[in-house]
Model the fold of this input.
Amino acid sequence: MTYATIRYDLADDVATITLNRPDRLNAITPQLFEDVSGALDQAQAEGARAILLTGEGRAFCAGADLQAEGGLPDDPGELLDSHYNPLAEKFATLPIPVVSAVNGLAAGAGCSVALWGDYVLAARSAYFLLAFVNIGLVPDAGATWLVTRAVGRAHALEMMMLGERVPAEKAEAWGLINRAVDDAELMGEARAVAARLASGPTLAMGLIRRSVRQALSSDLSDTLGRERIDQKTAGRSEDFKEGVAAFLEKRSAKFQGK
Done:
């Protein structure tokens, strides 16, 4: 299957989705989000066990394309309803892990897209920018939730109200991302992480993704109850049987995500 605004590749159980509008710094259009959504469906249908998300060229994603045909609607919230929020929810509820490789600027909703990953690596030359305030808008695509929970109230307000760049190394120090790496090493490091996740017990990882998201807005009692339910599911999996057998036999486990 081919897409107009992205590239899709599946190798070694990792589906790589590359935002591919480099002439527009991979800025978001409705078509781009539709293509990404379709690629996620394709990846799951083809049995991918991890997603690797990156951008083509010198940017990861510059946010909404304000110069696209038609521009923004009078009510920008319409785009959130039709494209942004559904894709954010789709990433959040995926049953497989997601790695983001931020190769350059991640601005506006593009910052949110980067943070949709479970494990986020960024090139040292990359930076994150929530400049909505500079055009009189508020952060979207989940930014207020994702950023605030990652870096805390003070840094989140600084980032959102001043609208200034946060370089990759500062983003790492703040806890916004997992690691900043040398530019030349970014894709190699990202593929290694994605491959490691894809070879693991991805059924359990899917449960972990959901549990962590729910724990961010749940109390301890609710979290304990969710862990009990998920442990029952994981404990009945083939991966659990294989993991225990491999441990007892002192060998590497061969997980299948089942």
